[in-house]
Amino acid sequence: MAIAPLAWAAARIPAWAQISPRTRAPGDTDWLHYANDLGSTRYAPLDQINADNFDTLRVAWRFRTDSLGARPDYNLEATPLLVNGVLYSTAGSRRDVVALDAATGELLWIHREDEGERAKKAPRQFSGRGVSYWTDGRDERLFYVTIGYRLIALDPKTGQRIASFGTDGVVDLKTNFDQEIDPVDSDVGLNSTPCVARNTVIVGAAHTPGNVPRTRDNVRGYVRGYDAKTGARKWIFHTIPQKGEFGYDTWLDGTDSIGNAGMWGQISADPELNLAYLGIELPTGDVGGQYRRGPGLFGESIVAVDLDTGERKWHYQLVHHGLWDYDIPCAAILLDVPIKGRIVKLLAQPTKQSFLYVLDRETGKPVWPIPERKVPKGDVPGEWYSPTQPIPSKPPAYDMQGVTEDGLIDFTPELRAAAVAAMNNYRTGPIFTPASLFEPEGTWGTLTVPHLTGGTNWPGGAADPETGIVYVYSKTVADVMTELPNSDKALSDFAYINVRGMSDPPKRGDHVYGVLSVEGLPLLKPPYGRITAIDLKSGTFAWQVPHGETPDQVRNHPKLKGLTIPKTGRAGNVGPLVTKSLVICGEPGIVTLPDGRRGAMLCAYDKATGAQKGAVHMPAGQTGAPMTYMLDGRQYLVIAVGGGSYSSELIAFRLPAA
After folding, report:
1. What would the pLDDT profile of 24-82 be if each residue is shown by its tens digit?
2. Does residue 537 contact residue 337 with C-beta atoms inside 8 Å?
3. Cα–Cα distance for residue pair 397/392, rounded to 1 Å
4. Are 520 and 553 in contact, with CB atoms under 8 Å apart?
5. How far, in whole angstroms, is CA 630 from its chain's centroid?
6. Under the phi-then-psi rule, with left for phi > 0, alpha for psi from -120 to 50, and beta for the rest, what region is 328?
7. Residues 6+ apart with CB under 8 A from 323
8. Where are the beta strands (DSSP E) in 118-245?
9. Burial letters for 345-380: b for 16+ Cβ neighbours within 10 Å, e otherwise?
10. Dihedral sign, CA of 631, 636, 637, 643?
11. In contact, 348 and 356? CB cutoff 8 Å
12. Residue closest to 494 by CA, chosen among 376, 385, 381
């Protein structure tokens, strides 16, 4: 049967084919938001799975995604929702939506949208981070954004589109956007889930990733709020202010020819305050601001907006005139914490730069001082450099920042000496040292830490609302930022562009430009990945531990033979889950286990001390943040895994039957 583009949904299930109503068992729980709650804590106060039995977990069921789309998917970033015994998630290379029996993993329905060329030309062709759920106590629906940038409303019982929402269940997000863009070729999409708070569905925007923008006048990533019942646009927030709007005066050359400034991460909201917290990315471009002189609101800012109107209530800019691709990558964590004798409504924002910015979410004021500090200036012609950047006084940075000799590999004096020689080919400095020009006989650009992808990236952190402690994973990886004059206007209309690779890279001694390793080992010393517990009552660390087994190429390296290498952790993008007693997080990537198996471990740490209490084998690394629930008296852990040659799947763990 031919499938008409944009028309086929839910395998054409007839109206009578519905998920049967289920009677909830005592103790059953739901997982109704991407991070379980609108405060993005990723917390569930469950303890059937605990330190004493974590090692005994067994696979309850698996759901492979290979048949969802024309090709397999290898990077499922979704965290499923659970509503009354049914799991809902996006999955597969076409970003289908599936409903699964949460006890068995059985497929109950599938929703498919065939978007043709619109999807093939989309900038974010991923399987999605999941769906969002809304109910008013009678009606209920699921929302998700397709690869082709359309907001879809589904009936959770059938997977059918809800005809009363938008046009036959669809809102075309490339329309009513306060800018004219091509419905097929325009550079805008979204991989994250919408935020649904009260009766508003909030949708962000993302663009082609990378540090060489094709044009500075790209699509603008405005944020919009829609009525959850009708699909009507309620409001739009101009992340790049127009003339006459608040923030326009922070652009010294105006905003007529600037794009991006989207919001591609997850969103938190506080229904009691009637606020949503938007984390805005850079305007064009990621490491070059030649055409956007000035601080440039609302780039790299947290903006609190009214849920009903989208009106800005406050904002806080984390980076002025950003030149490091330090987009706000994840949802802010919302907690109510006692500080100096009073309860403070906090917002804690993990970042790529490995600072946790802690603000009063009612006012946007820092909880602890965030003074403006002088930062280095660069040498790119025509660039504008902010003289200062806000540097939190508390908490301290939770991962390495800036490059110094002390941060280089130090397993042996020989390796340290080689790392120093490599470092000396580049400019170095503290955090917020900008990109520099490539000089064949001088320095080859700027060596920077954290990497332009973090630090912390899209999975974000987790928190325990009962203790006020935030748990965040971060990676320790160096990056190079090198600016060169652009001779290819078809590639980009920027005069200077960031070069990540060269067809004929220069070499000095044993070091080749851009190869940030020594003898095949990482340039920086471990840990390469870590989890940090940060107590928001005091702004101090409760603990910090490496996360992830030592990579094979480190453990088995001939230069390290005979040395005792402590657990190094692994670099990647993973997010933790917090339960009554544990912090649970899977490893990124795979490693060879002592018994010869290849795979990754799902690890459990004592949330009070950081001591590892257990681990179970997974066939591939974590790709989506884990979630948990109680169903019919048994606790489940569900996690998305994949990567390398292992295609994506959801795996559910539970304890053996008594």
Report:
1. 999 999 999 999 999 999 999 999 999 999 999 999 999 999 999 999 999 999 999 99
2. yes
3. 8
4. yes
5. 26
6. beta
7. 287, 288, 289, 378, 383, 385, 434, 435
8. 132-135, 140-145, 150-154, 170-172, 195-197, 200-203, 223-227, 233-237
9. bbbbbbbbbbbbbbbebbebebbeebeeeebeebeb
10. negative
11. yes
12. 381
Which residues does the chain have with pLDDT short of 70? Answer: 1-17, 501
- Which tokens in the block code for residue 335? 């907690």
CA-CA distance, 633 to 564, in Å (whole number)?
A: 45
Q: Which helix (H) or strand (E) holds 63?
A: strand 58-64
Beta bridge partners of 541: 534
Classify 56 as helix, strand or coil.
Answer: helix
User: Element (H or E) spanning 471, and its range?
Assistant: strand 469-475
pLDDT at 619 (0 to 100): 97
What per-residue confidence (pLDDT) applies to 291?
A: 94
CA 604/CA 45 separation, integer angstroms: 15
Which residues, other chains included, contact 658 with Cβ-Cβ below 8 Å and sequence gap of 6+? none
Q: Among residues 145, 329, 331, which one has the least CA distance to residue 231?
A: 145
- Other beta carbons within 10 angstroms of residue 396's beta carbon come to 15
Whole-model pTM?
A: 0.96
Radius of gyration of the chain measured on its C-alpha atoms: 24
> H or E element: which one contains 436?
strand 436-437
H-assigned helices in 124-236: none
pLDDT of the residue at 187: 96
Tokens of 577: 């889950």
CA 534 remoteness from chain centre: 19
Q: Write the DSSP assignment of 533-575 as a string of letters.
A: EEETTTTEEEEEEE-SPPPHHHHT-GGGTT--PPP----S---
At 418, which helix (H) or strand (E)? Answer: helix 413-423
For the chain, the straight-line distance linking the first and the last C-alpha, in angstroms and rounded, comes to: 48
Distance CA 551, CA 218 (A): 40
The Cα 332–Cα 348 span in angstroms is 6
CA 569 to CA 642: how far, in whole Å?
19
Q: How far apart are the C-alpha atoms of 389 and 357, rounded to whole Å?
A: 13
Exposure pattern of 177-214 as b/e (b: 16+ CB <10 Å)? Answer: beeebeeeebbbbbbbbbbbbebbbbbbbbbbeebbbb
Q: What is the DSSP letter of 161?
A: B
Whether residue 277 contacts residue 267, with contact meaning beta carbons closer than 8 Å, is answered with yes
Q: What pLDDT shows up at residue 97? A: 98
Long-range contacts, 596-602 (Cβ 8 Å, 24+) = 600/641, 601/549, 602/57, 602/626, 602/637, 602/639, 602/653
Token output for 136: 């008013």
Q: Tell me the two tokens of residue 184.
A: 């097929």
Helix (H, G, I), strand (E, B) or coil at 504: coil
Quickly count: other Cβ atoms within 10 Å of residue 343's Cβ: 9
Order of strands across the sheet that contains 275-279: 268-270, 275-279, 301-306, 312-317
Strand partners, 268: 277
> Which residue type occupies 217?
D
How many beta carbons lie within 10 A of that of residue 42, not counting itself? 30
